């Protein structure tokens, strides 16, 4: 077959640099977007913050090239008649119309943003003392090992015992338990140090007196006994709790209360008080020391009720208002191809696209949040049990966008409601058919299961089959295995583990 060249015409979708930037900003969380805006402000002299009280509405809004401030929408949406209004705009007045020249609205599709525009964004902190806090930007959470080593440094020990203690601390896992046996710890030392098992055990007892209580235990029983020994001697039922933790912990785990009462010679009410004392202890003492950095959630959308109507607005505090600097923009000259003028022209175009992308993000987020609240008005009024089934396709059809766009908008975006702060994805859930031909969301079913378990008889907890029967009595057709799946997602133990003494 002879090779040949063939010319064909066709259409295909391509991602322009402007569209790539808009999509990237759309899927950023609020904290990431704030960092992106700060980097843009530091790298682009054409961009500046618009402070409160600034008034720039003194120019012709139809002037070609004029730019507006990208600010969160301050309009409220009425969900009796859901509407959406454009964000308020302020227009910069540029002298003599020096940059009225038409700047290309699009780049060639096969170019990258950095190929045309300089983006020397800096991630260095600002020199403003009011904004820069070294401790909050550089500190990390304290680990369990560092917490124990700090206490070790305050304890009087010989150099040999301090070496043993540091080795033991390295063998403690994040739950607070000693992972290695004492024989393994002894074998890890150099034989020339002549460290014996009795010395290691003595140092271990010293470490077990550190905070948090119960640290460096080898078993659950030892962990509970260490915590009980630090309680005041006059604590009610202390001796019985120590006996239970030492001898009958396996019976407590299997909830064999009749055997416990018989072996410990206690009545039901007395055994209940002993068990309550045991349950007040922490089986994982190391978990009290958080080693990870704190994560903060900044709501993107605020929903509130006013005059029996639900109103939604973007969080103005989370989004700085930007505008094009009119003084720098006025330096751009037409028909000037010098390096300085080309740089300013590129920075101006980049600033204009960045502001438009922010406006597009705010508008899309507002539209999606408006439709979500319109669909889930029952949840806002009555709680989880009134949550309606909702999928991405429903919102995409309502706002006239693709489902992938709705997915980007709802990822890592949070809504502040009178019932708490929820990620936008929380309001989407699958549905289950009802006996009347309707639908019930999985979120509502989980709420009903949680309510049924909270009201059950602790001596005779509800099984998954019984819960499925109670749901069917309410017209919700759910299989037993589905109930088990929802129960596990709520962190609720099986009925055999929920059985308790009254």
Automatic annotation (TrEMBL):
Domain annotation RNA polymerase sigma factor 54 core-binding: ranges: 134-328
Region (Disordered): 41-91
InterPro entries, A to Z: RNA_pol_sigma_54, RNA_pol_sigma_54_core-bd, RNA_pol_sigma_54_DNA-bd, RpoN_core-bd_sf
Molecular function GO labels: DNA-binding transcription activator activity; nucleotidyltransferase activity; sigma factor activity; transcription cis-regulatory region binding
Biased composition (Polar residues): 70-91
Pfam family name, one: Sigma54_AID
GO biological process entries: DNA-templated transcription initiation
Annotated GO CC locations: DNA-directed RNA polymerase complex; protein-DNA complex
Domain of life of the source: Bacteria
Alphabetical UniProt keywords: DNA-binding, DNA-directed RNA polymerase, Nucleotidyltransferase, Sigma factor, Transcription, Transcription regulation, Transferase
Ranges for domain RNA polymerase sigma factor 54 DNA-binding: 342-500
DNA-binding in keyword set: yes
Keyword DNA-binding on entry: yes
Family: Belongs to the sigma-54 factor family.
Annotated function: Sigma factors are initiation factors that promote the attachment of RNA polymerase to specific initiation sites and are then released.
Protein name, as recorded: RNA polymerase sigma-54 factor
Organism: Pseudomonas marincola
Gene that specifies this protein: rpoN
